[in-house]
Amino acid sequence: MISRTGLVAACALFMTLHAFGQSGTLAGTVTDKQGNTLVGASVTLGTAVSSQITNQSGAFTFANLPAGNYTLRVTHVGYTEYTENIQFNGRATKLTIQLSSQSNMLEGATVVGKSETQQVREQAIRAVVVDTRAVAEQPTTLAELMNRSPGIRIRQSGGLGNTVDVSINGFQGNAVQYFRDGIPLEYLGGGYGINNVPINLLERAEVYKGVVPVSLGGDALGGAVNLVTRKHIGSMLDISYEAASFNSHIANLSAYHRAEKGWFVGIDAFYNYSDNDYQADVEVVNENANLVPVTVPLFHNGYAHYFVEAYTGIGNTNWTDELRFSVAHYGIDRESQHPALMTNPYGALTMHNTGWVPSIRYRKAIGSFAVDQFVSYSTIDRSRVDTVRGTYNWYGDFTPHNGIGESPRPSLATIDFYNFISRTHVAYTINESHKLDANVVYNHNRRIGADPYGLRFAGTDIDILSKEAIYAKTTAGISWESKWLNERLVNQLSAKFFRFETRGIDGFMANATDLDDYTTSENNNWGIGNAVKYTLGDHHLLRASFELTNRLPRENELFGDNDTRAPNFDLEPERSFNVNLGYRYQASQLSAEIGAFYRKTKGMIMLVPVQPPFAQYQNLDSIRGYGVDIDLHYRISELLQLNANATWQDNRMVDIGDGLHQWIEGTRLRNTPYFFANAGAVANFNGVLASHDRLKPYVHWNFIREFYLNHIPRDAEPSGFLGLFGNAKVPVTNVVPNQHLLSAGFNYFLANQPVSLGFEVKNMADSKLYDYYKIQRPGRSFHVKINYHLTKKR
């Protein structure tokens, strides 16, 4: 007979064996102490189960996991390792794991490990960080995300894919330069940029305001934008697709695999398409030959763009940290609906851009010495087609005539660009408190083309484009970073050297007679800068920087475009002095930052009319500006976060030498907003439709104060405080009015699945929105996005 004790023991043994025979799902989320999700954390359950890497939401999932005892281990760069013994009973389990910042004592100094994004935010040179990984599932663009940042405005002349120009504290155009992982973005010839790259392919975007780090190797005045591509561990597959109003489609594919011996292979690709046929307000001629306002859909504003980059290489060997070979190919087809202003419609003018871009990159750190070498040689073809014999009206009706082309200059131009770029970055760590960085970028550009309808040299039938034009630029810099007072005080002193050389024939108005008389131009300049950061405590820091620097003329400014932009080989570099001050507070619930700037720029390179229909880049007036911005982020709880920022800036024309234009002295920089603000909220709910799903609703509001298409007298400006209230005393045609943009959406993450859905309504109120030059932007639009992301570590 079995005793009661034996029966209980037998039942317990049976139940234990039964439980350990089951399998289920163990899932969780990894965060820091402030509740921010950590992407790329490694999660292991001993050696018998494959490791996981947390996704964009900081989540991991072990499906079909047998019941049993496991040692859970979570690691992330800059954080203390988390280890816990768990007993998994086979039932669906959800964990939340918090990692602490890693702290080590080194000869009396405390070194606190932080994520790369946090380190960039807190460096001596201020950078606004757009964290694209945190919002990768949203149906939004990089330009929209940057527009929500303090001190930054995006100029985009129309809908998806149209040209983007970033304004940083009022400085824009070529004064702001763009980089991809520290390499000048111009080597990709327009195939990859702010206006087209999906946010899924990026880790973050760093926007430098004022001083530009030596490591970027640029000759920017107003700042720089560095697009940091996503970093991969193990094997990864990411696919997304977005469908939106105006027949817009955005698709993204990214795949990566790393073998055990360090070899890796990957591909990044995207495709963008849109009809951009949104409603716009224009003026048409009525039966009485008078201009009357009407609202019509744009009919020749389409855009298609593909980009593919395949790469392979090897890393983590005794002779290289990474050796990477890549080949990129892209194609862009763009319809042009109107000239710079929405004055008259085009119905057939198109532009095309294709390129092949192979490149090699080698990186290696040996002890205190590190080198990063990049080389690329690209071939890029750009064409412009304007040969239609007739004109279109705003309703899309065609009227034939004998003249060729819709624009002032008919064209069937094909221009080939051959670009070579070399970037060498060397770093030497003297000791724990001192580090040297040196950077050299050499860029050589050769242009040659043909246009049967283009300009000819006087008395000949020789196409001006058939004569090659050469532009070469060198930017070199060196910086010394030093740390004092137990690293509370950090100083970065830098010096830069700029040089450019050009060679071409000045064919403006076809006046050149000696076709072998090439015009050459060259210029050398120096710059100096310094940035300092002082850490007041665990939550406070102060920053200050100054820079005296140059911006070299670009090849298109020197050579023109064989259309309506005339060459000017006498251009001189712009020269600017800028000062920046800032304070940052960072705590678990609240982060706040305030910054101020002052800038004086001489010899601004601006496009001015010279002889209709021609315009030319010239060194003209000077600009003096100052301003302030504030940025706030507040985490009310794990469920709700709020953010807001505001920017006010006063950029004005000074040192006007021409007596005829003396009235411009002291007027605001035209076509440039001087006040704008953003506010937003993001919520986070778990277990909405299923036990382990997640819902993230969000809302964003953007406001732009009215600004002006041209210079207006100071006594005509709004009389309210700082110009924030009232209206300007100028005709309404010269005013870009106050604008409010309200957008809202949500992301839904399926339970225990690598799939998420995104939905957003942009411009919910269907407000009238305008860009620079009063180009109308799209009205209300609806966007749906599906994401699939799978990561596995070997």
Work out the helix count: 4
Shape: globular
Largest sheet: 22 strands, antiparallel, barrel
What structural class do helix, strand and pairing data support? mainly beta
- Detail the poorly predicted runs: 1-21, 103-113
Instruction: Report how far the terminal alpha carbons are from each other.
Output: 54 Å
Query: Could you give the count of β-strands?
Result: 48
Percentage of residues in helical conformation? under 10%
> Residue-averaged pLDDT, rounded?
86
User: Beta-strand percentage?
Assistant: over 45%
Rg, rounded, reads 29 Å
Describe the model.
By secondary structure, the protein is mostly beta strands. The chain has four helices and 48 strands. The strands form ten sheets. It has a 22-stranded antiparallel β-barrel. The protein is globular, with a radius of gyration of 29 Å. The protein starts with a helix and ends with a strand.
Brief summary:
The protein has 794 residues and is mainly beta.
SSE layout and pairings?
Elements: H1 4-20, E1 23-32, E2 42-45, E3 52-53, E4 59-66, E5 68-75, E6 82-88, E7 93-99, E8 103-106, E9 109-112, H2 116-121, E10 127-130, H3 142-147, E11 152-156, E12 164-168, E13 176-180, E14 183-184, E15 202-209, E16 223-229, E17 235-244, E18 248-258, E19 263-274, E20 279-285, E21 291-297, E22 303-315, E23 322-335, E24 350-366, E25 369-386, E26 390-392, E27 398-400, E28 411-431, E29 434-450, E30 469-484, E31 489-504, E32 519-535, E33 540-551, H4 555-559, E34 565-566, E35 574-586, E36 590-602, E37 605-611, E38 614-619, E39 622-635, E40 640-654, E41 675-683, E42 685-686, E43 694-704, E44 707-708, E45 735-736, E46 739-749, E47 755-762, E48 781-792
Parallel strand pairs: 1-7, 13-16, 34-38
Antiparallel strand pairs: 1-4, 2-3, 2-5, 5-6, 8-9, 10-15, 11-12, 13-14, 15-16, 17-18, 17-48, 18-19, 19-22, 20-21, 22-23, 23-24, 24-25, 25-28, 26-27, 28-29, 29-30, 30-31, 31-32, 32-33, 33-35, 35-36, 36-39, 37-38, 39-40, 40-41, 41-43, 42-43, 43-46, 44-45, 46-47, 47-48
